[in-house]
């Protein structure tokens, strides 16, 4: 079931979804509530009662942009008394591995009163994959749950063979009693005496101890980012960047590097993807490279640490390939889902090389490029030996051999399709990854030449990049449309669907100037540009659907990549027009860029129509304003 009210608290790989009065009820479905860390739910019930009843909510927890803290105001159950005897002020917060709940009870009258306050607590340690809306249940043989009373609270434990997780609930002052409930939960009880017009405060701390959690990474000091100056005409962009800063800070995820060093990388999004997704982290880092180079630094190290070293067919892993998704939950650990380290993307590997080269260029610091030379050469080898460049001339994937339905950024079923909606079959050569491959080869050639002192390798990569570009311009161009095909299918036929992927091709520089000019003009035409951003498929094709994730929806990061590409190709006025639409979209969402909206035209609907079930906050959406800042720079 879908909850009617959720407040999201997010920080450093931990998030809590609580109801309007700060409670957690254990809901499942599209957006379950609870406290989550490393893909497991570490708090499934957290329900406050006062004098045996549920308090009345006077001020609910906010449902706007996620933050790391929130408050609510409650009063006595029933809420019909003319002068309630007490008021409850609740302040809640998350930080890495912790949930804090401070409950202050104020007596409102001239006489002392007694209040019985109780908190029902339980932990199901459910894996996030169990909580998705398909309601699948997984076998968990030999799993043991424990509940141990502590002097100041309760400890919940879960063990399945070597897998062990704990949640420790402590309170100050300690509860007067800890009671068992019929459901197996525990009820912590306090009998409070409030002086006349006085108050008392309970301070509760929930510490999640997930299996295999790394040591906490040091947070950046406040104000570590340089202050950005904005011209008056860019006030909207300033506000969008400020919200993007806040979201990126909330979404930074603790990871470890190749030598065990503590890192903080951009997680993909809340609620389902508070984890490392290779493509998302790489694109987020590339979009924010000018403003947040530390994201790129840590992302590269984290991905080098998880780079494949052997073939594992069920994970679609081959030596040198960059990971698509990393999961830490119980089901991934016991290989009941394949996502512990899952390599089902064809584009993360070239994007890794693009980021490595761009990071060295932008920061003018080649230490990381030296350190990751071996990882970079392995990634290049994967593109040729396993990705398809050597044998087939292109990066390609076969979704019919298992894994995700598609393995480029439009990875939903049916996303790579003909104009009538028929899915492309066989070994798919999607357009955007070929642009990434071209950029990867050119960036790595420059590293080989300028940093690694290997001119022969540089010449080899430059030759491969030139040959790829020549093939691509011949095989993918649609002369009648003045545009690029979405893909080639398994028979080598063009998939002549018009998609926003062409904006990514502009960004990578794989198009020559005449084709770049034609694509730039078409992207800002009404069938693509909704007024808010670019539709993933141009309207007017049978395959287009305004509520489709990848066949008509509008993604801010996708449009931001196109804005960078337009600027690179010399089409700054068009980049500015696209930026204006995106900033209007941000303004309509309290300056938080949504992950995706529907494709309905702004001219027909003065407010953007939301896409159901989008993540919020989401990292590459949060990064989009910074890409606009780069695209609009003089």
UniProtKB/TrEMBL annotation:
Superkingdom per UniProt: Bacteria
Domain Putative glycogen debranching enzyme N-terminal positions: 9-205
Coiled-coil zones: none
InterPro entries cross-referenced by the UniProt entry: 6-hairpin_glycosidase_sf (IPR008928), 6hp_glycosidase-like_sf (IPR012341), GDE_N_bis (IPR032856), MGH1-like_GH (IPR054491)
Domain Mannosylglycerate hydrolase MGH1-like glycoside hydrolase: 434-588
Protein name (database record): Glycogen debranching N-terminal domain-containing protein
Species this chain originates from: Streptomyces chisholmiae
């Amino acid at each position: 079931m879908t909850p009617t009210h959720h407040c999201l608290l997010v920080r450093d790989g931990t998030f809590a979804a609580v109801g309007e009065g700060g409670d957690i009820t254990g809901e499942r479905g599209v957006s379950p509530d609870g406290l989550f860390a490393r893909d497991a739910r570490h708090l499934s019930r957290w329900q406050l009662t006062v004098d045996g009843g549920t308090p009345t909510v006077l001020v609910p927890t906010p449902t706007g942009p996620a933050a790391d803290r929130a408050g609510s105001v409650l009063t006595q159950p029933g809420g019909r008394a003319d002068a309630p005897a007490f008021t409850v002020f609740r302040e809640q917060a998350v930080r890495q591995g912790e949930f804090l709940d401070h409950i202050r009870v104020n007596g409102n009258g001239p006489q002392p009163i007694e209040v019985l306050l109780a908190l029902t607590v339980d932990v199901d340690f459910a894996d996030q994959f169990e909580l998705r809306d398909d309601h699948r249940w997984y076998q968990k043989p030999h799993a043991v749950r424990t509940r141990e009373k502590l002097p100041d609270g309760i400890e919940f434990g879960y063990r399945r063979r070597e897998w062990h997780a704990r949640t420790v609930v402590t309170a100050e002052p300690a509860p007067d009693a800890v009671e068992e409930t019929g459901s197996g939960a525990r009820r912590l009880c306090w009998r409070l005496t409030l002086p006349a017009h006085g108050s008392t405060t309970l301070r509760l701390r929930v510490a999640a101890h997930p299996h295999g959690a790394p040591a906490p990474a040091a947070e950046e000091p406040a104000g570590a980012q340089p202050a950005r100056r904005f011209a008056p005409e860019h006030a909207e962009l300033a506000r969008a960047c400020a919200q993007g800063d806040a979201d990126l800070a909330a979404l930074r995820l603790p990871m470890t590097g190749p030598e065990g060093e503590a890192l903080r990388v951009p997680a993909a999004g809340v609620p389902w993807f508070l984890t490392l997704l290779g493509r998302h982290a790489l694109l987020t880092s590339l979009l924010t490279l000018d403003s947040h180079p530390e994201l790129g630094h840590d992302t590269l190290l984290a991905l080098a640490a998880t780079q494949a070293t052997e073939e594992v067919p069920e994970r679609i892993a081959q030596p040198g390939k960059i990971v698509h998704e990393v999961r830490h939950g119980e089901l991934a650990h016991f290989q009941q889902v394949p996502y512990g380290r899952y390599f089902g993307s064809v584009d993360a590997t070239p994007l890794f090389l693009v980021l490595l080269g761009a990071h060295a260029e932008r920061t003018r610091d080649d230490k990381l490029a030296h350190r990751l030379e071996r990882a970079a050469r392995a990634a290049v080898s994967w593109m040729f030996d396993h990705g398809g460049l050597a044998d087939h001339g292109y990066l390609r994937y076969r979704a019919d051999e298992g894994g995700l339905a598609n393995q480029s950024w439009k990875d939903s079923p049916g996303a790579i399709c003909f104009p009538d909606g028929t899915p492309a079959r066989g070994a798919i050569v999607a357009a955007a990854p070929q642009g990434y491959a071209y950029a990867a080869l050119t960036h790595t050639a420059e590293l080989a030449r300028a940093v690694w002192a290997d001119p022969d390798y540089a010449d080899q990569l430059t030759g491969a990049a030139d040959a790829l570009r020549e093939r691509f311009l011949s095989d993918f161009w649609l002369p009648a449309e003045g545009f690029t095909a979405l893909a080639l299918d398994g028979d080598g036929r063009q998939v002549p669907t018009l998609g926003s992927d062409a904006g990514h091709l502009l960004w990578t520089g794989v198009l020559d100037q005449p084709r770049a000019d034609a694509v730039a003009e078409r992207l800002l035409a009404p069938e693509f540009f909704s007024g808010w951003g670019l539709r993933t498929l141009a309207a007017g094709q049978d395959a287009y659907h305004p509520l489709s994730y990848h066949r008509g929806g509008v993604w801010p990061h996708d449009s931001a990549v196109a804005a960078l590409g337009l600027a690179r190709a010399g089409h700054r006025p068009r980049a500015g027009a696209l930026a204006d639409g995106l900033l209007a979209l941000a303004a309509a969402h309290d300056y938080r860029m949504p992950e995706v909206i529907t494709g309905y035209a702004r001219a027909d609907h003065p407010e953007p129509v939301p896409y159901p079930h989008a993540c919020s906050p989401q990292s590459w959406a949060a990064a989009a304003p910074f890409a606009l800042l780069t695209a609009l720079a003089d």
